[in-house]
Amino acid sequence: MPPRLARFLVLFAVFVCAACGLVYELALVALGSYLLGNTITQASIVLSVMVFAMGVGSLASKRLQARSALSFAMIEGLLSLIGGLSVLLLYASFAWFSLYGPALILIAFVIGALIGAEIPLLMTLIQKIREEDAATAVADLFAADYVGGLIGGLAFPFLLLPLLGLPKGALTVGALNAVVGVAVVLWLFRSELTRGGRLLLAVGLALVVAVLAVAFVGSDRFEMSARGALYRDPIVHAERTDYQEIVVTEAFDGTDTRLFLNGDLQFSSLDEYRYHESLVHPAMTGERGDVLLLGGGDGLALREVLRYDDVRHVTLVDLDPAVVDLARNDPTIRDLNDDAFADPRVEVVHEDAFNWLRDNGHEYDAVIVDMPDGEDVATSKLYTVEFYTLMRHAMADGALASVQAGSPFFAADAYWSVGSALNEAGLATTPYNVDVPSFGNWGFYLAADGAAPDLELSEDHPDLRFLDDAVLDAAQVFPKDRRPDGAKASSLLHPYIIGYHERGWEGY
Q1: Secondary structure letter of residue 485 according to DSSP
Q2: What's the pLDDT tens digit per position in 244-302?
Q3: Strands 364-370 and 395-404
Q4: How would you write 334-394 as a 3-class SS string?
Q5: Which residues face 403 on adjacent strands?
Q6: Which of 1, 181, 401, 440 sits at a 20 to 30 Å CA gap from 455?
Q7: pTM of the prediction?
């Protein structure tokens, strides 16, 4: 083979291996974000461990230079196998063994070490094709490496995840990595291998591809089994959207239906009315002709809003269309929300609530915020001074806003941080808390632009199962060990609420 073509093939192998290596990194970060939240923490752990391990792998590769072709092929085979299976291995460690953290560090280190050993060995291989200036060879190798990283980084969110999902995407990339990495050695450097070495690599390549293929075929069943281990009741619906994992479980006797988003409980049909009555009805004591509902794609808060006949229009802003589709079409959830989305007074907008508020020019008589807790980067911005300032601008004169704010018992600082952010945004607040058995003690704020609003029910409120004036009076009492203790207001640049949640829920 002409040296120019052989050199091109080696650089192409560098390109492909770099793209695959970056996909492995991103897959580990994405899985950690799905399972545990807090993308910054997951990315920091994965990238720092992998970069350190790459240095270790580079140093270790010096001992492999004597048999560089065979060593490179074996490294690519191992990298393909471990990288391809990494998502399934980590999911198993999370679902069955509660060893996700140690498993993540170990897998990230092994993958990083194998990636780190690639470039020194490739440098040796490319010099064997044609001796050239070291600086030129390094420039060519790193150019191919960086371009491969670019392609891998773009292919992961825009191609692999939408078409294949996380487990199958990693497995497919692993197979590609194995075929390219090992085949280049078997083709270009076969003269440096003994007959036994060629046989070893050929059999190893076949085994790696076979294992990855079997895992690909069985990944859906594996994911269902692992997911089932995470939930108390049988899973009746599960899907992964562009934004989150949606799971619905149902008790064997049909008495308890539960919705989970990214593993976090959103409601239990046994007691969701306690939560939603407490969230909605205190904000419906004044004008309520035009209501804004931020979040609440399950339709349960919407159900409570629509119980007032003088509500003329409700704008519901929820990011994920799949949640609303589920609430519209699943018979059990549709029964729970009284088919709220079929009401002609309802307008649904699928946008990020923060960005939607920035562009909003309308004022509403009542605002209800039913968002997931601010435990990670994606949701923490919905509990910031900036967000509540935008919300205040969307409130008409005399409007009330109610905000779910997490648990004053399990994460007291996070709860009081929400109040601090509301106050810094110019809103006066009345904090209150109730007991929701499936959640525990849970807290809310009633906010107004002016004096702190009275916590009460409208004289014409509908019949309620849980809430009355006596409950609301008691709800304003917080025990001594859960009263304000200087929690800071979160902002976009200082998302204190993430740390407050992490420290608060630690150990529970």
Answers
A1: -
A2: 889 999 998 889 999 999 888 999 999 999 999 999 999 999 999 999 999 999 999 99
A3: parallel
A4: HHHCCCHHHCCCEEEECCCHHHHHHHCCCCEEEEEEECCCCCCHHHHHHHCHHHHHHHHHC
A5: 369, 445
A6: 440
A7: 0.84
What torsion do the CA atoms of 155, 157, 158, 161 make, to the nearest 10 degrees? Answer: 100
58-99 pLDDT, tens per residue?
999 998 888 889 999 999 999 999 999 999 999 999 999 888
Burial class (CB within 10 angstroms; exposed 0-12, middle 13-18, buried 19+) of 263: middle
Please pick, among 318, 370, 376, 413, the residue that the annotation labels catalytic: 370
Q: How many CB atoms lie within 10 A of CB 302?
A: 29
Interatomic CA distance for residues 85 and 433, integer angstroms? 45
Other beta carbons within 10 angstroms of residue 443's beta carbon come to: 26
Partners of residue 268 on adjacent β-strands: 258
Task: Give yes or no: 370 in active site.
Answer: yes
Element spanning 268, H or E:
strand 264-268
Quick one: residue 292, left, alpha or beta (phi over 0 = left, psi -120 to 50 = alpha)? beta
How far apart are alpha carbons 368 and 284 in whole angstroms? Answer: 10
Amino acid letter for position 262: N
Residue with token string 């993958």:
111
Q: Tokens 């594996």: give the residue.
A: 222
